[in-house]
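Figure S4 source data
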Amino acid sequence: MSDLRSRVAYLHGLAEGLDLNTGTVEGRVLAGVLDVLDDLAEEVGALSDLHGELADYVGEMDDDLSAVEEEVYTEPEIIFIPDEAQIEEDGVSLVCCPNCGQTVSAAAGRMSAAEEEVTCPVCGCTMDADEIME
């Protein structure tokens, strides 16, 4: 962008070096054109700077959105823990399978409310996830 500004500055210098007579109609037109070129070079430079800032901002938003997508759309993870000694830990619940009656403890990882089904590790019966969530 500085190339455009320097080219317009060169034209201004050239006009001054040639002793452009602004008293004539042609001289006023050329001086006006040089002024418009100067304004355009400044505007294009400002727009280029703004474009760079917006590109950086969009990149940051894309990174943030990727983090949110990873948090929201990650497959739910349900871990069955057959050892009842771990029931006291956070996120672990007892589940009694309605089919085989086996009591197992289950730790629910990231899971959306009642959208998921849980499969009993003993008999393969499926249960609603909200049955094991508090």
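Figure S5 source data
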Amino acid sequence: MSRITITINGKAETREVEDRTLLVQFIREHVGLTGTHVGCDTTQCGACTIHLDGEAVKSCTVLAAAADGCEVTTIEGLADGPKLHPVQQAFHEHHGLQCGYCTPGMIMASVDMIRRHDGVLDEQTVRHELEGNICRCTGYHNIVKAVLDAAEKHRAAHAVAAE
């Protein structure tokens, strides 16, 4: 057993966990944030994608003990109160939600992608970068539209801020 502290969505969470506890299990079962899903448990589907110290990772293949002292953002931590994060809003507006199982992972991967590319994305890049996230509804068209819209809004907002 190990005593670990992980800051999740701005709140320090300290728990005693078995050394083999996965980060996704820590988030869901120990902290009770169930927005992060477990799809495959083998890093194939991306449903468990979260941000670990600002970068998207698949939390089903990270030990919770390895994240001791780190900061985690889950899908629950993206919105600003009742106001959706721009990527969440774009998924809503472009019907990129389908059944919703993959949505948290898709959104977390998309937020990271837009940040890394500073909003400069094309369809091919978005499709390539989302290859590690599987939508069982196969509704990639609307997901890609949502990511491109959010990226465009990100670029526009940063262009205005730079002026």
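Strands lie at 2-8, 11-17, 49-52, 55-58, 71-73. The longest helix spans residues 140-162.
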